[in-house]
Automatic annotation (TrEMBL):
CDD domains according to UniProt: ASKHA_NBD_GLK
GO biological process: glycolytic process
Name this protein carries in UniProt: Glucokinase
Keyword check for Transferase: yes
Keywords annotated in UniProt: Kinase, Transferase
Similarity comment: family membership: Belongs to the bacterial glucokinase family.
Domain of life: Bacteria
InterPro entries to which the protein is assigned, alphabetical: ATPase_NBD, Glucokinase
The keyword Kinase is assigned to this record: yes
Single GO MF descriptor: glucokinase activity
Origin species: Chryseobacterium mucoviscidosis
Length: 349
């Protein structure tokens, strides 16, 4: 994997020969599946040698998974560790609510002998990982042109709602994390006010993550079923009970033409366009918008690109700016893993 020139990332260590041929473990920690990879750096890029997945809840700590990965693959003297976590990182520590673990980079240096350990929010890691994307990984929603100079926004609904950005300093893109997914959701129409009240009874404070995530998609679906009384086929309830909710909802909408599922996906995508608009305006992301995450990647073929764009650019006064922003869907599921490894390979102050 080599750096894509469309992403002029600030990685000063790329020019340092001491960062070539370095062994690295990258890790993407998630509440369902944690993915680890063994990488070797070189020529300003990375080569992945091994990649394994582990069911997160079967382990009591990240250290257990890390030791198993090292043992399973008979790895020795690995120099660096890069970790992507679903939550904020402060002073090399993180306690992601979705994991229930306390993570500390100093612990991994001390106990496992890594010479360098870096821990990033998973969307910040994804922002670095997008620097390794091939053009084929980027599906244009609005434009097939190149990225313009300017800040860039990243929106990624999955188990939670990840939001991040790149600051463009005039030469390089510098990724940064946000916790914007926890900002408050606001309704626009009368039906959305009903939906808000439904969520308010469940959560109190209603965040965008309560709407744009796997749990959020379920919230939309059960509002349509329980409040708006759209019928749910009995066979579909059985599929939900025994399968992956997002995948089963998508298949029911596309293959069986189930109305409640189509309305749920349409509603989700309208909210996604609206929050993409919010994030783009807040970051003044004239350089582009990237949609990533499990849900958009799963339902990619359902997305009506023209309709998404029309919903995205609605604004009180900023439509002229919004209509010129390129929008891409990232179809690569490993950007956080690759980005954590890339950062620890080449980022140096």
């Amino acid at each position: 994997m080599i750096l894509n020139p469309k992403f002029p990332l600030y990685l000063p260590g790329v020019k340092n020969d001491s960062n070539d041929n370095v062994s690295i473990i990258g890790a993407n920690l998630r509440e369902d599946i944690t993915t680890l990879g063994y990488f070797v750096s070189g020529n300003g890029g990375l080569e992945i040698k091994i990649q394994n997945k582990y069911f997160t809840k079967e382990y009591g700590s990240f250290t257990e998974i890390l030791k198993k990965f090292i043992q399973d693959n008979q790895l020795e003297n690995v120099k660096r560790l890069g970790i992507a976590v679903p939550g904020p990182v402060l002073n090399g520590k993180s306690s992601p609510a979705r994991l229930g673990w306390n993570l500390d980079v100093e612990e991994y240096k001390r106990d496992l002998g890594f010479e360098k350990v870096d821990m990033l929010n998973d969307l910040e890691a994804s922002a670095y990982g997008m620097g390794l994307l091939e053009d084929a990984d980027l599906d244009p929603i609005y434009t097939s042109g190149h990225l313009e100079n300017g800040n860039v926004a990243i929106l990624a609904p999955g188990n939670g709602l990840g939001e991040a950005g790149y600051f463009f300093d005039g030469k390089y893109l510098r990724p940064f994390a946000t916790e914007g997914g926890h900002s408050e959701f606001s309704p626009r129409t009368n039906v959305e006010v009903e939906f808000y009240q439904f969520l308010n009874n469940l959560y109190g404070i209603v965040s965008w993550e309560n709407v744009l995530s796997k749990g959020g998609l379920f919230n939309i679906y059960r509002f349509l079923r329980d409040v708006k009384r759209h019928p749910e086929p009995e066979w579909l309830a059985d599929r939900f009970a025994n399968g992956n909710f997002v995948e089963e909802l998508y298949k029911a909408a596309v293959e069986e033409d189930v109305l409640i599922c189509k309305i749920a996906l349409d509603t989700f995508l309208e909210f996604l366009a609206r929050e993409a608009n919010n994030l783009t305006l807040k970051l003044k992301a004239t350089g582009g918008l990237f949609i990533s995450g499990d849900i958009p990647q799963t339902i990619a073929d359902y997305i009506n690109k023209d309709k998404f764009y029309e919903k995205f650019k609605i604004s009180d006064k900023m439509e002229e700016m919004l209509r010129n922003i390129p929008i891409y869907l990232n179809r690569n599921p490993n950007t956080a893993l690759n980005g954590a490894a890339l950062y620890t390979a080449y980022y140096q102050e």
